[in-house]
Amino acid sequence: MKRFRRAAAVVALAATVGIAGCTTDGTPHPEGQVKKKGQVNTDKFDKLTLECQILNPMQIGKAIGGAVPSPGFNGAICRWTVLGPRITTVTFNWFEWGTVSAEQRTAKKMGYETENIKINGISAVQQTKSGRNICGVTAKAPSRGIYTWFVESPGPAAADPCDGAKKLMELVLKTSA
User: Fold this and answer.
1) CA distance 83 to 8
2) What's the CA dihedral at 72, 74, 76, 78 to 10 degrees?
3) How would residue 17 be classed by pLDDT, with cut points 50, 70 and 90?
4) Of 141, 53, 46, 136, nearest to 97 (Cα)?
């Protein structure tokens, strides 16, 4: 029992010395204190929403059959609301390290039916979900990663959402090639 206590004391001492010797760079701020405005170098984020500008709102609206009053941006995805015969939500993402096969596996796990298709001669995957007026199209991005367009309208279909998703993918592949 004495050996166990000594061993435990040595381990505790070593952990204390190890933790006490750690340092981090920067200036500490009390919890809840917000940095003053202007202290963030936003030059590092000058192209943060560039992927959301790959097509302009007019192109998106024309492909879906409506008008886009204003774009929205939500983290890793870009989102637009298209006003037409039905309100339609359009979502675009560019995952720089993604693959079409990984997106297809993920879609299947999420209950989507997938189909291999071609867009402008490029292999792509179409994703639909029964009971919902939603369609996604994923294709390899010309530079790296993958592009995905999702088109969804609530309620009964006013048009095939896959037509819009395919048109958007055709446009973006032409634009970014």
Assistant:
1) 68
2) -20
3) very low
4) 141
Count of residues for the chain?
177
Under the banding of pLDDT at 50, 70 and 90, the label for residue 72 is confident
DSSP class of 67: B
* Residues 72, 41: Cα–Cα separation, whole Å: 23
Instruction: Determine the Cα–Cα distance for residues 117 and 123; give it in Å rounded to an integer.
Output: 6
Supply 142's token pair.
Answer: 């010309």
**Neighbour order of strands in the sheet with 113-119:** 71-74, 77-83, 87-95, 146-152, 134-140, 122-128, 113-119
User: What three-state secondary structure class fits 136?
Assistant: strand
pTM over 0.85: no
SS3 per residue for 145-168: CEEEEEEECCCCCCCCHHHHHHHH
d(CA 141, CA 103): 13
